[in-house]
């Protein structure tokens, strides 16, 4: 009896209840991953706040200091005694920037700190939301009135540095105008895996460094340089930035895997599909996976109480499968 579970995943139930998992692959992996949309696409940023210096356009070697710039942002003056309450009420329109304090001290016209005993602070506001005193929504306006805060806007001169910018802003400033900007990638442990387009390749080293700078825990960025080999399911890659250590540690659905990402195929987008298929199994089932890879199906199945027979043509897969079975203490349940 054959029951189709998904387009390219089939489950075959035999009278003796073994369960076979088969997967149809194409050389470009289109049958498994139908979309190349990055898993970590950045949200739309407030590009109106940052006007990059023209000197960074076309940069191929990252110069962080070149991105520094002073911009004018709206701010509202709040008594210190009620600061926390008002800030909470205005959180939807407050300025949100990486590494940036949104509450600052007042300054005099000469640029020095105000010496008025710190009775007031300035809350920096998002210039995309607040352009004048009339820009506040009814909810914010009512809160300001209730706390007795004047609905008046000041201009604050804010210094933005590379640390305060988002990856999309940096790359949009560097790449030629009108060309696609990518700040998305697939993450495999400490490795960020990118699929750059041809027009982005001259900037690949800079892109890799920006990804490391803006994503804690990422210490290596690679770019795929050819299509996936249809026999052994791996591909050539170039290290764009960071360390060259390709042995990744990945935890998926409560299972720990280790493997050399340069020698095996691993797609983090298949995590949900792995979990869904394994959830169909019951304790005592016999599972045969003839394309076992590093074990994303058979190790969870063994942990579920199934008897497992696993194989793979690629010796690298097979070695890491054995390693991961021992790592998860199910090596006696897998043949």
UniProtKB/TrEMBL annotation:
The keyword Cytoplasm applies. Keywords: Cytoplasm, Methyltransferase, S-adenosyl-L-methionine, Transferase, tRNA processing. One of its GO terms (molecular function) is tRNA (guanine(37)-N1)-methyltransferase activity. GO terms for biological process: mitochondrial tRNA methylation; tRNA N1-guanine methylation. One of its GO terms (cellular component) is mitochondrial matrix. Signal peptide: none annotated. Residues 185-335 form the SAM-dependent methyltransferase TRM5/TYW2-type domain. It catalyses: guanosine(37) in tRNA + S-adenosyl-L-methionine = N(1)-methylguanosine(37) in tRNA + S-adenosyl-L-homocysteine + H(+). SUPFAM superfamilies: S-adenosyl-L-methionine-dependent methyltransferases. Belongs to the class I-like SAM-binding methyltransferase superfamily. TRM5/TYW2 family. This is tRNA methyltransferase 5. It comes from Sinocyclocheilus anshuiensis. The lineage of its organism: Eukaryota, Metazoa, Chordata, Craniata, Vertebrata.
